[in-house]
Amino acid sequence: TTLTTTQTRAATFVPRVRRPYTFTQLIQLSDGSTYTLRSTSPTPLVRSAKDSRNHALWQPTDKSLQNVEVDEAGKLAAFRQRFGRAFDLAEGPKDAEGGDAAKAGSGKDAAAAKNKDAAAAAAEDDAYDLGDLIGDYGASIDQNKLKSAKTFGKVKGAS
């Protein structure tokens, strides 16, 4: 058997275009106004859900945009379903106080009930307050026993 030798050739380098093709796009804002631009994206129409007319950063004085809990994607609801509403505890008593004060009556009775509820809420411990842990940390060691300790490695009676 004889081997036939065939000529092989590497692929020729074909230079690509340095500037990509740009398409004309129509951008439609939330209020219905449109403008055109050139983009590398081939989609002819882009509808913007958030833009400078309906975003709180662009319109800080608009009261309808002040709601922080806008949950368009459902992520806040999914978080609450998974972890509960423990993070909303700070907001819960405020609503309950207003309702209790309104039930108490009007005039001085309502004001007194409102002040009483506010004082009770202020006295109530915060769920995330760790000040008592920090304050009690060094209180268990008696300073006199530390001074009278004769060895550096051991402290008598401190535990």
What is the 3D form?
flat
Question: By helix and strand content, what is the structural category?
Answer: alpha+beta
Strand content: 5-15%
Strand arrangement within the widest β-sheet reads 2-1-3
Taken in chain order, the helices and strands follow as EEEHHHHH
Distance between the termini: 94 Å
Low-confidence stretches: 95-104
Number of strands: 3
Radius of gyration: 35 Å
Largest sheet: 3 strands, mixed
The average pLDDT is 74
Percentage of residues in helical conformation: 25-40%
By DSSP (H or I, 4+ residues per run), the number of helices equals 5
What does this protein look like?
This protein has a three-stranded mixed sheet, with no helix packed on it. Among the domains are: 20-48, no CATH class; 87-124. The longest helix is centred in the C-terminal third of the chain and has 16 residues, at 108-123. It is α+β, with helices and mostly antiparallel strands. It has helices at 75-83, 92-104, 108-123, 131-135, 143-148; strands at residues 23-28, 34-39, 45-47. The chain contains five helices and three strands, in the order E-E-E-H-H-H-H-H. Strand 1 and strand 2 form a beta hairpin. Residues 95-104 have low confidence and may be disordered. It is 31% helix and 9% strand. Helix 2 (92-104) packs antiparallel against helix 3 (108-123).
Q: Short summary of the structure?
A:
Helices cover 31% and strands 9% of the residues.
Write the layout of secondary structure elements.
Layout: E1 23-28, E2 34-39, E3 45-47, H1 75-83, H2 92-104, H3 108-123, H4 131-135, H5 143-148
Parallel strand pairs: 1-3
Antiparallel strand pairs: 1-2
Helix pairs in contact: 2-3
